[in-house]
């Protein structure tokens, strides 16, 4: 049975409606902040803006606070409302999504820190191309994940699941080329390592975006597709599922 | 808008309610007091006054009441003088102003006689058995002889009631007894009675009225003797208690104007019991049918309305119905079939205990049905469902769960029935009560309970004594006493049922109110 | 049913048990009070040795359905019934069926505790005495066993002769369960058994229901969703006399198939 995104505002208890809407709103707000964190971190690296980078690291605190607040709200809803069916799935999805968003925030913070090190070390812009490409991809993924969450759009979510494969491939090739570079020039080990951390963080962000997409499918369809191989997923069957 | 300062309280309503209850209780108390005083007071040995009139004529009597002569200034006083055989009347009105002197001499004696009623006067002599007592010795001698006589009289009465009368009943139309043993017994009893009679007939009393006339009084016709003016309060109390006891245990005398009401008590209680035995099963079964078994359609509703309307039918109508259907119809048929040898003297074709009980059972049937129905309706449905859900059949549910819970209500119905029936007189006059039936319907003679006999009834006794006696004045105190007794009998019957109901309710663990 | 590699026709919203594993079968049951229909063409099977819950809004027919299972509607002349109900394969409305025996095999516990105005012992022994032929020793043992089964023995063992009405509400309800258990039913119908009780008694009754599963099939009507979710294995959702959805409780309460079910469970207006 498909649910629409406005379904959580149709309870007889208006207060319950409000609580659930607020959960979604707060999650979206957190998602927006996290999206910006990722963007700023990458910008800081690519444009050599260490001040921006340090700001990103600072703002991570706000992200953590938001997760704690969202978790607390979810706990309240569980205790007081004993939600069932799609309400229950929403609360569980929000808890899990909050956790993943917080991790994305951590990864963004890591990117920013490494960026600052690179900038301070002034080691040129080797590897930036790969970073730019992957980061674009990953940022789009995060944005799409949040959009699919907001719109309860499983088709979009399922597309993301497949995209993560691509990101992994890009990451692998980027890592290979950086390794090669590192082996050629011994002086570049330190900056390359930093870049590698950055790439790794970006790859992780992609994984987390993938998780968000899985939560959307759980929320809307009631299917838990975590740990299922993408090849085994029959998107059409899922879409058709009543 | 109501202000906050309005005086709180519930207005006049609690007072009205409490006042109504108080008023009802007061009226009830007044009734009982009136009955008690006028009735029980009769047995108190009143002092006999020796009245000397202005014109010199003395008489002895008990003052009863005073009245204002209408239209005149003077008052009249009524004295009970007894001595009907001497004066022709037992009562005497005297103008108070004509009284010269009143004294209460201790030696004035009151005798209760089985013929001619009471005697007021002096005891001169006692003779009998070769003895002759006068003066001071006369009174003790009288006492002694009276107690001896009582023993003899008891034996004679017992022989008559237990032996002679039952045997006489068995006399066939020719006046003979079939069984040789019975004949012998009857002859022996008659002989003994004659012996006793002659032993008793020996004594003679010489009595003198206060105005000097003398009479000879055979002692065997004297029931009791006492000297009220010489009795201490304790003696009077003893005499009063004795009088009450006699009232309860003796049969009536002098056309119901004197004596006791024992047969009437017995008859009333017996009839009420028989009636209860008949009405309870029918009423309960009818109530169960109407409430539990019958399809609740328009016909059942009609029957229910009919039953409730029956409760309003006047009692005399039931009497007429009983007379027509039970007495003449069924009773006549029974006589033809089973007692044809006694005809034309009716056995069941006339009023009797059975027909009276049945008639009153009909009278009270609606009450019992309604009470049972109400009780059944009060049993909650969830109790019935609970029993059914355990695998009980309809019958088992009714008998094991519903009816035990309805018992208090059924008893209430019975209480109401008893209260109504014990007080009804009109229908009984048509179907079975007798002015005089000193033989109670239960005796040692098979079949022990004689349903065809007429019986006496307290209510009817009151009516008869008050309106049909030739000496209403004398009967009046007995009327009050009997009325008090009737109230008490009903009270006892009701209390018994109420106790039973309370006990039942307590046993079921349900909260019960008296 | 796999939703991974092959598309399969998903089963409808009503689970079907095999006849061999069901205690009660309801086939095409329609019931009306005079002109007013109460149940419309219901078909479902109640599994053996499980707890099945009926939920639904007021007037949906869940109590009506429950009472049809032990023919309590026989008492009501207005009721018109079509369709069949089978207990262990036998039609309960067949003419030769002994209704009293049916009601012994399919026991019922009602919403408000309704102990008889007798002693505790007599309440439990009531059904036994109906059967008859039991000696006192055996009856004592059975009464004790029944009270144990209802988790009431410890609380009343010293006052078996006291009136049943001296017990608290929760104890009375357990007493009612004990007296129903005493006659060894196969199925136990419970019509909102805890709705009149305080929370602790409610939990005790629920615990009792769970423990009884091993011996009986239980059918529970409740308007308390959480209770249905806690206690039952299978839940049937009825609305306006129709069976809307019937499936395993854990699925129905996390991911119901039909929107109507979802709306009712989560308390939505539409």
Give an account of the 3D structure.
The complex is a heterotrimer of chains A (242), B (514) and C (270). The relative contact order of chain A is 0.14. Chain A is globular and about 65 Å long. The longest helix of chain A is centred in the middle third of the chain and has 37 residues, at 85-121. With 242 residues, chain A is mainly α. Chain A contains 7 helices and no strands. Chain B is α+β, with helices and mostly antiparallel strands and 514 residues long. Chain B has a domain at 262-315 and 364-423 and 435-507: MetI-like (MetI-like fold, Orthogonal Bundle). Chain B has 14 helices and 13 strands. Chain B has helices at 13-40, 84-87, 138-169, 180-200, 233-249, 262-293, 298-310, 315-338, 353-378, 381-389, 394-423, 426-431, 458-468, 472-507, and strands spanning 49-53, 58-68, 75-80, 91-95, 99-103, 109-113, 118-128, 131-134, 204-208, 214-218, 222-226, 252-253, 258-259. In chain B, the strands form 3 sheets. In chain B, strands 6, 7, 8, 9, 10 and 11 form a 6-stranded antiparallel beta sheet that branches. In chain B, strands 4-3-2-1-5 form a 5-stranded antiparallel beta sheet, with no helix packed on it. Chain B has a two-stranded antiparallel ribbon with strand order 12-13. In chain B, helix 8 crosses helix 9 (353-378). The two termini of chain B are 44 Å apart. Chain C has a domain at 19-114 and 185-266: Rossmann fold (3-Layer(aba) Sandwich), CATH 3.40.50. Helices cover 35% and strands 25% of the residues of chain C. Chain C has helices spanning 62-69, 99-105, 120-131, 136-149, 153-156, 169-182, 199-212, 225-231, 249-254, 259-266; strands at 22-33, 36-47, 51-55, 79-87, 90-91, 106-109, 187-191, 217-221, 234-239, 242-248. In chain C, the strands form 2 sheets. A 6-stranded mixed beta sheet of chain C has the order 6-7-8-3-9-10, with helices on both faces. A 4-stranded antiparallel beta sheet of chain C has the order 2-1-4-5, covered by helices on one side. The longest helix of chain C is centred in the middle third of the chain and has 14 residues, at 136-149. Chains in contact: A-C, B-C. Chain B binds chain C through residues 295, 380, 382-383, 385-393, 396, 400-401, 404-405, 508-510, and chain C through 70, 72, 75, 77, 99-105, 107-110, 112, 114-118, 126-127, 129-131, 163-166, 176, 179-180, 183.
